[in-house]
Design brief:
single chain; 280 residues; alpha+beta; 3 domains; five-stranded antiparallel β-sheet; four-stranded antiparallel β-sheet; 14 strands; 28% strand; binds flavin-adenine dinucleotide
Length: 280
């Protein structure tokens, strides 16, 4: 439980942090440390240098930006969960944040850190996928805006380059839509055995469109696109048949706690419940 030796830098500007990343191939950014430090203690990660983002001002905020809400990468899960701006205009991310880990984790862990970590059972990935969020990364080449649907490449793997730092996440305002995040918690770790983020637009008594992001079920969070198209035009409440397709085409994972067969069943149940709650 003792990490390998590493150097530590705590720059005070984003530019200094980017310089350090460019100069050291084996450097890693440190945010809340709630995923990176345990991995280092287990020697699953052995970066030669940590570049701590904690002293850089201006990376922690939640503010309106035209038809979107912009959230700084160093914003903690607790700040996301408690944000009045998000709860009023785009509550899905806040609903997911409120279900992450425990109070200590939510007070230290950050939005940018969680997305960069790309844990297959993390909560934010389902929400950013359902929201069609944008993930903003900075490097010395400038700013890159990565759609959430193109961000996750695999288990613990993203579209981020080594010289890039996530600075902001942008989510659309969803006033007038139904949103919810339903999670079946792993009893020991608190991570999602299955987590389902739903966004529905209604037209009268029918579903006009639905966006569903799912985590915990496979090596990578995904949009349940096959099911989304089945939901279009369906009467509110007729969700059970569509929810049966929540894991269509997905390579479902199994582990000692939940077999692949169990997870494949569970995701249909949690998805139906999430659709019903969002449509209300
Ligand atoms: C006991 C426990 C329970 C937990 N339960 C849950 C849970 O239920 N649901 C859940 O989703 N998560 C859970 N987590 C994980 C938690 O949410 C972490 O906070 C999160 O995964 C990582 O965020 P961090 O800010 O701590 O990042 P760090 O640990 O500091 O970094 C994680 C990775 O992201 C990189 N990184 C960090 N910030 C940036 C950035 N801005 N740009 C580029 N790369 C960056 C780092 O280099 C590192 O590779 C749990 C963690 C613990 C310890």
């Amino acid at each position: 439980m003792i990490p390998a030796n590493f150097n530590y830098e705590s720059p005070s500007t984003l530019n200094e942090a980017l310089n350090l990343l460019s100069a050291h191939d084996d450097a890693k950014v440190l945010a809340g440390g709630h995923s990176l430090l345990p991995a280092m203690k287990l020697r699953l990660a052995q970066p030669a240098m940590l570049v701590d983002l904690g002293r850089i001002s201006g990376l922690s905020y939640i503010r309106e930006a035209a038809d979107k809400i912009a959230i700084g990468a160093m914003t903690t899960h607790a700040e996301v969960a408690g944000s009045k701006d998000l709860l009023d205009s785009s509550p899905l991310l806040a609903l997911a944040a409120a279900q992450i880990g425990d109070t200590q984790v939510r007070n230290r862990g950050t939005l940018g850190g969680s997305l960069a970590q790309a844990h297959p059972a993390a909560d934010y990935p389902a929400a950013v996928l359902a929201l069609d969020a944008e993930i903003v990364a900075h490097s010395h080449s400038g700013e890159r805006v990565i759609p959430a649907t193109k961000f996750f490449n695999g288990m613990f793997s993203t579209a981020l380059r080594n010289d890039e730092i996530i600075t902001e996440v942008r989510v659309p305002k969803t006033r007038g839509e139904g949103v919810t995040y339903k999670k079946f918690h792993h009893p020991a770790s608190g991570y999602a055995v299955v987590g389902v983020a739903v966004r529905v637009k209604k037209s009268g008594n029918k579903i006009e469109s639905a966006a569903v992001g799912i985590t915990g079920v496979s090596e990578i969070a995904y949009r349940a696109s096959a099911m989304e198209s089945k939901l279009r035009g369906k009467p509110i409440g007729a969700f059970a048949d569509a929810a049966e397709h929540a894991a269509d085409g997905i390579d479902v994972i199994g582990d000692v706690y939940a077999s692949a067969e169990y997870r494949r069943h569970l995701v249909t149940v949690i998805t139906r419940r999430a659709l019903e709650a969002a449509a209300k």
